[in-house]
Amino acid sequence: MAARIQLPWAPAGTDTLPTALGYTNWLAPEVPPGRMQLLREAYDATLQDKAFLAEAAQHAMMIRPQTGAEIEGLIKQAAAVPKPVLERTAQLLGWQK
């Protein structure tokens, strides 16, 4: 039986980040925290709105709500992945030019 190598970072998960994030809204880093919180609250409320969800269902839209904090966590996790892991993932998936 071959020895199993434990790596501190694995390509698994790196390739699924776009799916995990879905279609998100991005803000510039200089947006004041109060404004960002207000936008997050409005976004979260929209994703709970019955009329919005009904219209989305009519158009066969998949709604997978994530809070701003959850998305921020995923982005921070992705930003912490070392460059060699990203390069290897791109190589494995054929994403390199």
Task: Based on the model shown, name its key terms.
flat, single chain, 5 helices, mainly alpha, 97 residues
Number of strands: 0
Q: What count of helical segments does DSSP give?
A: 5
Order of helices and strands: HHHHH
Percent helix, as a range, is: 40-55%
**Secondary structural class:** mainly alpha
What is the beta-strand fraction?
under 5%
Radius of gyration, in Å, reads 18 Å
The average pLDDT value, as a whole number, equals: 79
Descriptive report:
With 97 residues, the protein is an all-alpha fold. It has a domain at 32-93. Helices cover 53% and strands 0% of the residues. The protein is built from five helices and no strands. The protein has helices at 17-21, 33-46, 50-58, 68-79, 83-93. The longest helix has 14 residues, at 33-46. It starts with 16 loop residues before the first helix and ends with a helix.
Indicate the topology:
Elements: H1 17-21, H2 33-46, H3 50-58, H4 68-79, H5 83-93
Q: Would you summarize the structure shown here?
A:
The chain has helices at residues 17-21, 33-46, 50-58, 68-79, 83-93.
